[in-house]
Amino acid sequence: MDQMDSLNPANKIARKAGEENNNIRSEPVDAYYQNEQNKSGSCSVGDGIKRKNKGGWKLAMLLLVNQGLATLAFFGVGVNLVLFLTRVLGQDNATAANNVSLWTGTVYLCSLVGAFLSDSYWGRYLTCTIFQLIFVLGLVLVSLSSWLFLIKPEGCGDGQQPCTPTSSIGIVIFYVAIYLAAFGYGGHQPTLATFGSDQFDDTNPKQKSSKAAFFCYFYFALNVGSLFSNTILVYYEDTGKWTLGFWVSTASAVIALGSFLLGTPGYRYIKPCGNPLPRVAQVFVAAARKWNAVPADENELYEVEGSESVIKGSRKILHSNEFMCLDKAATLTEKDQQGPMNPWRVCTVTQVEEAKCILRMLPIWLCTIIYSVVFTQMASLFVEQGAVMDSRIGRFHLPAASMSVFDICSVLVFTGIYRHILIPLAGRLIRNPKGLSELQRMGIGLVIGMLAMIAAGLTELERLKRAEHHSSSLSIFWQIPQYTLVGASEVFMYIGQLEFFNGQAPDGIKSFGSSLCMASISLGNYVSSMLVNMVMGITATGNSPGWIPENLNHGHMDRFYFLIAALTAADFVIYVYCAKWYKCVNVDENKDGEAEVELLNNV
């Protein structure tokens, strides 16, 4: 198969030397692609960012406040949901744990919807606004349904007095409401993270470093918000004041929305880059249609002239040597020159590399799912474990869900340690100003998460030794190590994920990159639910109550924790291989086309 030279300054396709006498039809393909952009209402790189003199830390701080308040509202409902289902709706432990896992999984799966709408059509600002309105609506319905239908008699659901919901309609409204809240919060979160990073200009070295710090403070704000809901709100809900807790969550969501809208005049906006699905599909279709072709040399692959990418508002991406079969999509054949240029037969190098970026990130992302199984135990089995331990401090009863405050404090402490101690120290030792790379941090997070499951298993073994009827005399403070280890692992895993996926995602799918972190949590919840069902299906046979029965004193939840630890260890081995294989994206940073700056491989 003939190899074709790259485009000349006149944007004409020329045959290779020695074939110049052949009369082959040519076409200004660069102009064709630019016309296609104009038809779709696209913008160039130059006009993709509006209000460059706006943004900065003042506006980013508003978004951090929004994050903290929205998180307070979300966890005000979510952190104690497993106890609401058991005490108010009368579900058993395994069913309640599964329902919470499915609900939490839905929350984070909705992040993909928000990211898609943000990157493709609505932009970050409008997406954040609409999903926050849905979130507020869901919380209002949660509060009303519990107040009017479910908390009957008043003060029930405190662990002593059972509730008798007055209407099945109320239960239906409650489920619709919590899934509306899940949809709103899930769609808002990754878009807000990306919108916050948009407030800093990558072309300014100082602001570029501020962008990396923003993700750290973003997760910090998340945990500050959840600190209130995991202490004050949890206490009131645990004593039967569920409706009060839900209304406080609703008020927090309303204030969060107001703080977000307050910064409207000063935000730095980036236009959406169009639907990425056809772009990626075109690469695979074009490569498949030229399956028998020989990929052209790197310098002969098709790319538009000038500094602008064919993807509106996106920088060009330089060629990489992975997934070489996809280079066929950017290889010009004789047939491609005999008629109008067809984007389903010929793609630019940037389009091909965008598809490659997604394929390269996929194995790393899959390896984070098992960690999310570890993370989701805090909202389900950790709470159920703590509920059957001695939680008394004198006359004060400590709600089991409040133990997650140790996770939050661990995150806050380790975030400060990482930013102010570990990064400078690692920078001096390995001569990397960023300290540990994102991939290295994520690997450390996996190891610490595995240790958290081992600690939880050992605590459960000790709890069973002191079992009394339906509870245990073992102090609930034995759970501190497992919560602290999970918090430490979050700093390395989730902040690393936010930086990694946002940094490695091409410009046209930045929100999608941020959503991968939340989608990992989503699938982790579904996998956790699947594991619980599988374990109970296998172990609850004959007279055996299974590992996670209604009465935990008759089960072996410790074995379930050790199973997750073993899965995490196996996942870590696979992750190390994938991390070594991974090659970072190479972006053309030069707007004038005079030089190209390659991002270093930080593996």
Explained architecture:
This protein is mainly α. Helices cover 61% and strands 2% of the residues. The protein is built from 16 helices and six strands. It has a two-stranded antiparallel ribbon with strand order 1-2. The longest helix is centred in the N-terminal third of the chain and has 58 residues, at 93-150. The chain is globular and about 80 Å long. Residues 1-52 and 591-603 have low confidence and may be disordered.
Provide a quick synopsis of the model.
This protein has 603 residues and is mainly alpha-helical. It has helices at 29-39, 57-78, 81-87, 93-150, 168-198, 205-238, 242-262, 276-289, 349-367, 369-376, 381-387, 404-430, 438-465, 480-504, 510-539, 557-581, and strands spanning 49-50, 269-270, 392-393, 396-397, 467-468, 471-472.
